[in-house]
Specification:
Layout: E1 10-18, H1 22-31, E2 36-43, H2 50-56, E3 60-63, H3 69-78, E4 86-89, E5 94-96, H4 98-110, E6 115-124, E7 127-140, E8 144-146, E9 155-157, E10 161-171, H5 176-196, H6 210-220, H7 227-238, H8 245-272
Parallel strand pairs: 1-2, 1-4, 2-3, 6-10
Antiparallel strand pairs: 4-7, 5-10, 6-7, 8-9
Helix pairs in contact: 1-2, 5-8, 7-8
């Protein structure tokens, strides 16, 4: 009996931006094994073993100080050396299902579009939620740029976009401690962007496409009465998070709390007249100017 030969890697470069993602890197690199010709990582000076794990899996790793998500992604896809005809954006906490890999292979080899849109499903507290979004994640090299925003960046493809079957699994955070830390940074970024009136990734329009409607709602959200309650009910009922039981209920509550954080932080900026101070997190190296106390003392 002859075995079916494994397909060769796609003419595709997977690009990731990272900061302290060692808890995800092993799994995401294993998930990409044999799928893409190249993996490129733009790291923001991680303290953990993010870089080491990526290098052990054959990724090409670059480092650059992080400014904001739009700028970092545009640097990654426009300024780093990419030689393949196709590029894919992937976050370290995302995994491609076998069905999605097959669908992407078909779409890339068919060569009939400039961008590819896929379905991403959220996992929370280790469980899948019935919450899915369509996102553009693949494009022809040179046909894409990212919206120039502080946080929640979006790819903008110059050309036709095709949807494919299959699921991209988004394993949001390993635990709530990590989730709170990450969302705290994201909400600060949103508040700073709002205070500076930096605009939106897409033109806000109530009757435009999905992204334009989303930007219109984002622009006008603070004007809505009972907005946090309405957002909670939308996530719970309209998106169907209730099917996940208490995990879904907690996720809906936290999403509403996240929007409340943005409003409170924006109010603080307006009241104090200053932006939040970026403070270092985590432990550093021993300072030779201080006397070190043994751990057993």
């Amino acid at each position: 009996m002859t075995s079916t030969p494994k397909p060769s890697p796609l003419p595709l470069t997977v690009v990731m931006i990272t900061l302290n993602e060692a808890h995800n890197m092993e799994a995401v690199c294993e998930n990409l094994r044999g799928f893409a010709r190249d993996i490129v990582v733009l790291d923001s000076f991680s303290k953990d073993d993010t870089v080491g794990i990526a290098l052990r899996h054959g990724a090409r790793v670059y480092q650059r100080k992080f400014t904001n998500f739009g700028d970092q992604w545009n640097t990654a896809i426009l300024k780093l050396p990419i030689s393949t005809p196709w590029v894919m954006k992937l976050d370290p906490d995302e995994r491609l299902t076998p069905e999605l890999k097959d669908a992407l292979r078909e779409a890339v080899m068919a060569n009939r579009c400039d961008g590819i849109e896929i379905t991403r499903q959220l996992w929370f507290m280790g469980q899948p939620l019935p919450v899915r979004h369509w996102l553009i994640r693949l494009w022809r090299h040179g046909k894409c740029r990212f919206s120039d925003v502080i946080v929640n960046e979006h790819p903008i493809v110059d050309g036709s976009v095709e949807r494919v079957r299959g699921i991209l699994v988004h394993q949001d955070s390993p635990d709530l401690d990590h989730w709170y830390e990450k969302q705290n940074h994201y909400s600060t970024g949103e508040a700073v962007a709002a205070s500076r009136k930096l605009g939106f990734a897409f033109n806000p329009r109530p009757f435009g496409n999905a992204m334009e409607r989303r930007m219109w709602l984002k622009k006008n959200f603070r004007r809505l009465p009972f907005r946090f309650q309405l957002l909670f009910l939308y996530n719970l009922i309209a998106l169907g998070a209730w099917r996940a039981g208490r995990v879904g209920f907690i996720w809906c509550r936290l999403r509403s709390d996240w929007m409340r954080q943005i409003e409170y932080k924006l109010f603080e900026i307006q009241v104090t007249g200053r932006l939040p101070v970026v403070r270092p997190s985590g432990s550093g190296q021993p300072d030779p100017r201080a006397t070190q106390v043994p751990q057993s003392a």
